[in-house]
Specification:
By secondary structure, this protein is mainly alpha-helical. Helices cover 48% and strands 7% of the residues. The strands form three sheets. Strands 1-2-3 form a three-stranded antiparallel sheet, with helices on one face. Strands 4-5-8 form a three-stranded antiparallel sheet, with no helix packed on it. It has a two-stranded antiparallel sheet with strand order 6-7.
């Protein structure tokens, strides 16, 4: 029900009830303005685009607080990353109502971040987080649509990962302090992430089965997915470098002399300290880049996409293909070779009189 009444003070009172039966009213100096407002509100109710007037005032800052409270159930490291993203989002949009953020504003922000020289991965991560936050706002009824979409996306694909050469990997190994060198081997020849290296326990190494079975990440948090816990087959050469478990020994494979677990920070600090000593390594080379070497090694030895996916423990083959597709052998030459070999066999068979029962002159 909707109506407009003129008040004794000369103003016009427009009112309506929403789907829950709650009444909303506003006063206007002119009847035409009251009617316009009423038409807009009732139209949004009919089309399903209605948002409670009180909810329309919720700011980005206020919603980020609410959203984060519900996100706290995730891992501490995941929540920490979300806080970093939200801090940047708040800086840009914090005081504004959620409904004031238009696609054009998101697109302009992305363009400005790129112009500032921000890394493509960082800009994409911010856009993804902003979209996640706004999607939940829509789900909560605070908005009718998400201003983030493919049109507002930074659009720049992830840069191709830097793949170190075997010589660079071994030089990096030599430059590491001896007590930390095992980390390089586990990253480059088993594809372990730095958190998995530091969290690896003696029981996670199956020496008899020649496997590493990742289960936790630093300090002792369970890995998130079943795929991330997939066993990794490793050669005897790598197993020989891993200390065998012994009674009363440290609780982790990678430990200091006093048995204290090595932290991820210690490994990353080593990388930063020695990467400049290895000719050709980019300035921002990270421990995680050793996984790229591991992937390239598998691909160069003929492993297919599904095999590489399982060794890297990616959730999907698409992730593997998007990241490492350019490392597989040239598909054009592979196609030519495959088709050519079949055609050659067919032509030879047809041209052989003993196989066809007649000479080539009898062909039409």
């Amino acid at each position: 029900m909707a109506s407009i009444k003129k008040r004794p003070n000369g103003k016009y009172r427009a009112r309506y009830r929403d789907a829950t039966g709650r009444e909303h009213a506003r006063h206007f100096a002119r009847k035409v303005d009251a009617q316009r407002w009423l038409d807009e509100e009732t139209a949004s109710l009919v089309t399903g685009n209605y948002v409670n007037p009180k909810d329309r005032k919720v700011t980005v800052d206020e919603w980020c607080d609410t959203w984060l409270a519900g996100y706290e159930s995730n891992r501490p490291s995941t929540v920490k990353q979300a806080r970093v993203h939200l801090a940047r989002i708040r800086k840009e949009f914090g005081p504004l109502p959620l409904s004031a953020i238009k696609p054009s504003a998101v697109k302009a922000w992305m363009a400005r971040l790129q112009k500032e020289g921000r890394q493509a991965s960082y800009v994409n991560a911010l856009h993804s987080r902003l979209s996640q936050v706004f999607t939940d706002a829509v789900h909560d009824g605070l908005l009718t649509s998400n201003p983030c979409s493919r049109r507002t996306s930074p659009g720049a694909g992830k840069p191709r990962p830097y793949v170190a050469t075997t010589a660079q990997v071994w030089q990096l190994y030599e430059e590491f302090e001896e007590r930390y060198r095992l980390a390089v081997l586990l990253g480059a020849f088993a594809g372990l992430r730095v958190g998995e290296v530091c969290g690896l326990r003696p029981g996670d190494v199956a020496f008899e089965d020649r496997e590493i079975r990742p289960a936790v990440q630093y300090p002792a948090d369970p890995l998130k997915t079943e795929m991330s816990r997939t066993a990794i087959p490793v050669p005897d050469e790598l197993l020989a470098e891993i200390p065998r478990p012994k009674e009363g020994g440290p609780s982790t494979v990678f430990a200091h002399a006093d048995g204290v677990q090595v932290s991820t920070w210690a490994i990353e600090r080593q990388i930063r300290a020695v990467r400049t000593k290895v000719p050709g390594l980019p300035e921002g080379f990270r421990f995680h880049d050793l996984r790229h070497y591991y992937a390239s090694l598998l691909i160069s030895k003929g492993s297919d996409i599904k095999t590489v996916q399982h060794r890297l423990r990616h959730a999907s083959a698409k992730t593997t293909l998007d990241t490492y597709g350019h490392l597989w052998p040239d598909t054009e030459e592979t196609t030519r070779a495959a088709v050519g070999s079949v055609m050659k066999g067919m032509i030879n068979k047809t041209a052989d009189p003993s196989r066809t029962g007649e000479g080539s002159a009898g062909r039409t």
